[in-house]
Design brief:
Largest sheet: 4 strands, antiparallel
Order of helices and strands: HHEEEEHEEEEEE
CATH class of the largest domain: Mainly Beta
Helix content: 10-25%
Shape: globular
Distance between the termini: 79 Å
Number of helices: 3
CATH architecture of the largest domain: Sandwich
């Protein structure tokens, strides 16, 4: 009989310990009882209107603006060379038109390996006129372009952040032309 009483006591202690842990967890998540008062940071953002964060507040001057068809506009905001031998070009693709616009299929380029992975900016190239070389968007081992993919349509006024990654031209090459099928060409400066 003593074994049965001991087992019941252990189960009771385990149950009591679990209940106490749950109760402490619930109290810890309660917020201390000041639920009616917003925190100082939340209050500041509510009272002062829509203040952008430090990063949002940066007024980046675009490196280039490439006009496309149907009111599409590609604004390039950065072209950064990294230590791995790549250049990452970033920006925004916006529909400046009054109606929704389909992203042209030509922006994916004409390589079968790239096209089979869906709509992208895989047709983009960087042209180094000084070195007389053209750099294509990099691909991974499965042939997927290292760029924004899954592009279909943009509603009027809609904007989408985009990127493209290329092999880096020589270190002394700073000015290159960015070309994307169905868009105008633009010269950008590589930093880094």
């Amino acid at each position: 009989m003593s074994i049965r009483i001991t087992a019941q006591a252990r189960r009771g202690m385990v149950g009591l310990t679990i209940a106490a842990g749950l109760a402490l967890g619930a109290v810890g998540c309660g917020g201390g009882g000041d639920d009616d008062k917003p925190s100082p940071s939340a209050s500041a953002s509510k009272d002062s209107g829509s203040q952008p964060s430090a990063q949002e507040g940066k007024a980046e001057t675009p490196l280039a603006e490439l006009q496309g068809t149907s009111g599409l506009l590609l604004t390039i905001t950065s072209a950064v060379r990294d230590s791995g031998g790549f250049v990452t070009v970033s920006g925004n693709l916006k529909n400046d038109g009054a109606q929704s616009a389909a992203i042209p299929a030509q922006t994916s380029g004409d390589e079968t390996e790239v096209i089979k992975h869906g709509q992208s900016l895989g047709g983009a190239t960087l042209v180094d006129s000084k070195g007389k070389k053209r750099y294509y968007v990099l691909r991974d081992t499965d042939g997927r372009p290292l760029t924004t993919t899954g592009l279909t349509t943009l509603d009027a006024g809609q904007s989408l952040p985009v990127f493209m990654q290329f092999p880096a031209p020589p270190a002394d090459t700073i000015d290159v032309a960015l070309q994307l099928p169905t868009f105008s060409s633009g010269t950008i400066k590589i930093s880094g």
